[in-house]
Design a protein that fits this description.
The protein is of the alpha/beta class. The chain contains eight helices and seven strands; from the N terminus they run βαβαβαβαβαβαααβ. The protein has one domain: Rossmann fold, CATH 3.40.50.720. The structure holds nicotinamide-adenine-dinucleotide (NAD). Nicotinamide-adenine-dinucleotide binds next to α1 and α6.
Length: 285
Amino acid sequence: MAEKLFDLTGKVAVVTGAGANGGLGHALALGLARFGADVAVPDIDEAGSRITAQEVAALGRKSLAFRCDVSDPEEVERLFAEVDRVFGKVDILINNAFAFPSRARPHELSLDALHKTLEVSLVGYFLCAQQAIRRMLAQGAGGSIVNISSIAGASGLGRGNFPYSMAKGGVNQLTKELAVEYAGQGIRVNAILPAQILTQGFKRWMADPKTFNPALHQRLKDGIPQNRLLEPEEFVGPAVFLCSDAASAVTGVLLPVDGGNLALNAGGSHTWLAAPGEGTGTGNK
Ligand SMILES: NC(=O)c1ccc[n+]([C@@H]2O[C@H](COP(=O)([O-])OP(=O)(O)OC[C@H]3O[C@@H](n4cnc5c(N)ncnc54)[C@H](O)[C@@H]3O)[C@@H](O)[C@H]2O)c1
């Protein structure tokens, strides 16, 4: 039934880092709920988690607020035990919560900052995936895991993004390994690789003149053939697709949702020095 392809009615989803902070997890939790899913919205920010859970409930879906640090194995176990108690199953996991405490050039990076980034943004993804997969295997009905990665997992950003990019590169490989390992049991594992998204956190970063300026803004846009930064809502469609039966044969995919960023060669551009067919013919390369 074509009209049911994207329907998530009756599915139970866990979206990590889904607190009401105007971030991607927040938008995805509400997006999945709009497509019919019941949603658990764990976050280290307990108040934010409660607000998102209320918003999910207002859409007519069952919801669960829960304070959880995804880098702590015991807290992750408690989260999934609570999901068992409240919903009785898990069909979908969106690994989204991340931490990136400080930017530093690699030769000046502290081991603590590196560990913190990897523990939340890579090991945390594994911990949640492990709990979800155990349940999906026991349920025997497959499942879908979507790991929110980044363009930083597939190309270098510089500017002190080193530990973040290490984590996201690991997320990409975690995605492929889990996809291969569990394809036979109907558990699909995919990743979304966003370019820069205008979340509330990103907007706060843009407003800080110590770390951001118009030249950097222009540089980010120059790297995106669509010539703009992205909106959190633009990720709902790709995430719902990957979670739904519409993607029944899609697993192990690293899906850029990036306005064309990863398609662009460093020497390429989405602007022409002169209109095609005009000028000297030497500038439009
Ligand atoms: N915003 C961007 O430009 C951008 C670009 C590419 C990829 N991404 C990815 O999108 C995802 C979401 O990013 P965002 O910009 O929405 O972030 P955000 O900071 O707006 O939201 C992250 C959420 O995770 C929660 N969180 C932080 N540490 C946690 C922990 N240890 N346990 C549980 N929850 C925790 C925070 O409280 C927050 O609610 C991340 O995986 C990020 O790497 C974002």
